[in-house]
Amino acid sequence: MRASQYLIATVKETPSDAEIVSHQLMLRAGLIRKLASGLYTWLPVGLRVLHKVSQIIREEMDKSGAMEVSMPVVQHAELWEESGRWQTMGPELLRFTDRHGRDFCLGPTHEEVITDIVRNEYSSYRQLPATFYQIQTKFRDERRPRFGVMRAREFIMKDAYSFHINQESLDKTYQVMHETYCNIFNRLGLDFRPVIADSGNIGGSTSHEFHVLADSGEDEIVFSSEGDYAANIELAEGILSPPAHVDDNGKHSHEIVDTGAACTIEEVSAFLQTKPECIVKTLIVHAADKTGKRTDELVALLLRGDQELNETKAQNIDGVASPLEFADDDAIESTVGCKVGCLGPYQLALKVVADKSVIDLQNFVCGANQNGKHLINANWDDNCKYDVVADIRKVQEGDGSPDGLGTLQIKRGIEVGHIFQLGKKYSEALKANVLDKNGKAVTMLMGCYGIGVTRVVAACIEQNNDAHGITWPDNIAPFQLIIVQIDAHKSEQVVDVAESLYTTALSLGMEVLLDDRDKKTSPGVKFADSELMGITHRIVVSPRTLADGNVEYKHRKDGEKQMINKESIAEFLSQVASKAGIIRP
Ligand code: ATP
Ligand code: MG
């Protein structure tokens, strides 16, 4: 490509609305442009990178045995009604009607469509397992699109779906996908961690997320300092040390004491001269009925005073509304009879869920369910009670790792992939059956596997940048080589050498950008652009070095400038080409 006839849409200033480095650099390097909130055009330079990332994903998916398909973005409502999601999906699902008044949506994901294909095309267990994938546009009307393509409304996902006759087969494919994802993210040169993820109320370690480590990440991930344990903070477990002070004098009898206006854990702790870890904190949320529907009834959640609630864990508990809904002050006052700040598990006529951190407490402090009063020396067998014990605590850095190896560390991550065992959720609803070896119809089991392809590009930039721009890993840089010609209007030799290098590099199979822009583009701008776009190898052809018979070479990331004699450039280029992994026979 010749820069004079190519869209180099670089921008010098950092766009004010871009908060994170990848978003800034994607705009500045001319990879993307915003059309509207969460909607982006991929410009030529950006699209080259996107295609390379897609190709790596495609190659690894093909290697895993998955079959590529392409499903429509527009989907009709009937399928979504069959799965039940037409009713349950919120406003993320963009719905519309066609000219005949029929309901449609833009696909945020494709479980329904692929299940429909498989139920029609497959009839026997002999045809299973089968995995399909596509690399395709998704639309989700995100509440808060932000960070450019990181959380967009329209984005590209690699989504895959597998179908099985039994759990053993699903487990096997799940493992293959886990390995495939590791291969993909390794090939992309990313520093990533697979972590156990929340699988809603399905439970078990049937879901993993793949996170790229970056401070700008929206998620918190937790991992052991010494073992393999790694989990999303939403469901991470940790071993908590007991409170530092233990009362050896046995259990005392409780007493109700005036605590005045002290309401928060800090205030009560200061007022009663007690450590927060010896106080039981009580939170009141809405209950759910047997079908999972939120009700007006309330449930109390108990935590040690120095601990925080993990809302995801709490809402996954049977009988607790999901999404979690805290009761308002009026509801609490009319049900319990006191204000927030004096709540406790003392003679409380609500269902009480106790976090594991509170059940071993002795002679603790808690609210007395009377305004301005707390209990001291409270004990579980002395008018305080709980009904269910659960882990509803948010882990903290330094907790013991649940595998017993080391302590927990917390870092931020960008979720670039997600693998999930769906079981029969969609196949049952859509009656996707095959005949087993006894000729009996059985419902298939399913797995689903997603990668945010456009998000991967942004995540990669979060990990690969410096003060001058993007420092792509070699295999996804938009071009492998840039030839920058300087002062061509002053020297014909510059043009001759640059053109001949360009032809040689092309014949070696390299992806080359020849920066032949005229004198209106200064040398400084050309250098800055090449670094901003992160083109791996750079050769500068200028009258100054040609006077000594040389051109100048530099690697974007690690290279010092190096003079190469123009007679040996062809050979040098073929070395560069072979380093870049392009070797022509
Ligand atoms: P998130 O928690 O980030 O919203 P999700 O759980 O909704 O993700 P999945 O439905 O599992 O995501 O989608 C698979 C992958 O698609 C995610 O791992 C992520 O990389 C990507 N993805 C999801 N939503 C977006 C979005 N709005 N913009 C860009 N990529 C996205
Ligand atoms: Mg989402």
TrEMBL record:
Q: Which reaction does it catalyse?
A: tRNA(Pro) + L-proline + ATP = L-prolyl-tRNA(Pro) + AMP + diphosphate
**PROSITE patterns referenced in this protein's UniProt entry, alphabetically:** AA_TRNA_LIGASE_II
Q: What sort of enzyme, by top EC class, is this?
A: ligase
- What EC number(s) is this enzyme filed under? 6.1.1.15
The record's subcellular locations are:
Cytoplasm
Q: Does the keyword ATP-binding apply?
A: yes
Q: Which residues form the Aminoacyl-transfer RNA synthetases class-II family profile domain?
A: 38-473
Top-level division of the source organism's lineage:
Bacteria
**One GO BP:** prolyl-tRNA aminoacylation
Q: Which Pfam families match?
A: HGTP_anticodon, tRNA-synt_2b, tRNA_edit
Assigned keywords, A-Z: Aminoacyl-tRNA synthetase, ATP-binding, Cytoplasm, Ligase, Nucleotide-binding, Protein biosynthesis
What would be an example GO MF term here?
aminoacyl-tRNA deacylase activity
InterPro entries hit by this protein: aa-tRNA-synt_IIb (IPR002314), aa-tRNA-synth_II (IPR006195), aa-tRNA-synth_II/BPL/LPL (IPR045864), Anticodon-bd (IPR004154), Anticodon-bd_dom_sf (IPR036621), Pro-tRNA-ligase_IIa (IPR002316), Pro-tRNA-synth_IIa_bac-type (IPR004500), Pro-tRNA-Synthase_IIa_type1 (IPR023717)
Example of a GO cellular component annotation carried by this entry: cytosol
Protein family membership: Belongs to the class-II aminoacyl-tRNA synthetase family. ProS type 1 subfamily.
PANTHER family per UniProt: MITOCHONDRIAL RIBOSOME PROTEIN L39/PROLYL-TRNA LIGASE FAMILY MEMBER, PROLINE--TRNA LIGASE
Q: How does it assemble?
A: Homodimer.
Entry comment, domain topic: Consists of three domains: the N-terminal catalytic domain, the editing domain and the C-terminal anticodon-binding domain.
Which HAMAP family does the protein's record reference? Pro_tRNA_synth_type1
Q: What does this protein do?
A: Catalyzes the attachment of proline to tRNA(Pro) in a two-step reaction: proline is first activated by ATP to form Pro-AMP and then transferred to the acceptor end of tRNA(Pro). As ProRS can inadvertently accommodate and process non-cognate amino acids such as alanine and cysteine, to avoid such errors it has two additional distinct editing activities against alanine. One activity is designated as 'pretransfer' editing and involves the tRNA(Pro)-independent hydrolysis of activated Ala-AMP.
User: What is this protein's record name?
Assistant: Proline--tRNA ligase
Q: Which organism is it from?
A: SAR86 cluster bacterium
Task: Name the gene behind this protein.
Answer: proS
